[in-house]
Amino acid sequence: MFVDIHHIAIICSDYQKSKHFYTRILGLEVINETYRKERDSYKLDLALNKHYIIELFSFPNPPERPSRPEACGLRHLAFSVKNIDLTVELLNKKGVSTEDIRIDEITGKRFTFFSDPDNLPLEIYEL
Q1: Domains of the chain by range and CATH?
Q2: Average pLDDT over every residue of 90-116
Q3: Partner of 52 at 20 to 30 A CA spacing, among 10, 29, 66, 77?
Q4: Do residues 124 and 84 make contact, with C-beta atoms less than 8 angstroms apart?
């Protein structure tokens, strides 16, 4: 029935701050940026390795996320990495705090979490 995940939509509270984070800090590339005047809203299409993955939206006064990370709904977004130590080092150098690296007890793989500007939990998971 399904082929792949097409994209993930994220609503941010500060568009310029989140745009900077996802493009300058995480290195995602901008495919398209649209300002929708009637909604006072931006829509930023972002890609990773030429693959469309995120729609970043801004809306006036969006409600806050109920809790982190155990609220009902989407729990987190995870990025695959080849070298978690190097990725953690690069994020930390860019001012992004990361949690301690843990081991997935089921797969034996290493992973950790960090947050976007709206405190959305993001994971890096070593291949």
Answers
A1: 1-62 (3.10.180.10), 69-127 (3.10.180.10)
A2: 97
A3: 66
A4: yes
